[in-house]
Amino acid sequence: MTCNFKNAIIRKPNKSIQNGLSSKNLHPQYEIIVEEHTNYVKAINDAGLKINLLEPLEEYPDSIFVEDPAITYKSNIIILNPADHSRNGEKNIIENEVKHLFDNILFVENGFIEGGDILNINNHFIIGLSERTNKLGAENLSIILIKLGATVEICKTPNDILHFKSECSVIDDEVILVSYKMAKLDYLKSHYNLIELPIGEEGASNSLRINDKLLLPDGYLKAEEILSKKYNIIKVKVDEIAKVDAGLSCMSLRW
Ligand code: CIR
């Protein structure tokens, strides 16, 4: 099942996160990021995962978001190619830090692609084209995934959303939690059961289902009301992390 995991890779926060990329031009405070991150690590641990904690990288302001330079599939790690110049070098570092944890390491050699644009549901992947993921990168990754036995659909991330997964997450087999914008995507509508969150609760759509727990960004009361009926929720505060356009999924790699 898509949401069953045993392991996670997480990177400790770096002080330079205050200069991370931010569409709102905000600068988060390192000390508050550390607090939020500590709770995040605890939640992932409470969900039953063995955590591989990587050292901070001061030279890469956004390097805490380990989901973007790599993805995992079965016992493989695939090193991606982040589009933003300030993030591209993260891939070379993470490659060496994590390769011993996997049976195979593979590489996207052409085009740009970031993990935030890749949604994995069982053996299927949806890749959203965006400002960070282009057609060449998506096609290159597709070739790798298909050789590994997966199926792939290339879609489009809505224009004003940073990454495909910024506003959606798989929370059960065939069930995707979506914002109202993502709910409009034909491919998602026609293939999956969607749980649509109301306007104003977009931040909660980047949730993280891990084993029997659902990590939910704190402060979204309607989402909590809808989801707590069926899911075992752990609320995690990500207000400071959100200042650099990030949420729950991007701070770990799970497998
Ligand atoms: C960036 O713009 O790259 C970072 N500030 C945020 C990355 C968030 N990653 C993700 O949603 N997968």
Q: Would you give an account of this structure?
A:
The chain is α/β, with parallel strands linked by helices and about 260 residues long. The chain has one domain (about 5-255): L-arginine/glycine Amidinotransferase, Chain A (5-stranded Propeller). It contains 6 helices and 15 strands. The protein has helices spanning about 30-45, 85-90, 90-100, 135-145, 185-190, 220-230, and strands at about 5-10, 50-55, 70-75, 75-80, 105, 120, 125-130, 150-155, 170, 175-180, 195, 210, 215, 230-235, 255. Strands 2-1-15 form a 3-stranded mixed beta sheet, with helices on one face. A 3-stranded mixed beta sheet has the order 3-4-5, with helices on both faces. A hairpin with a 2-residue loop joins strand 9 (about 170) and strand 10. It is globular. The model has no long low-confidence stretch (mean pLDDT about 95). The chain binds citrulline. Citrulline binds near residues 67 and 245.
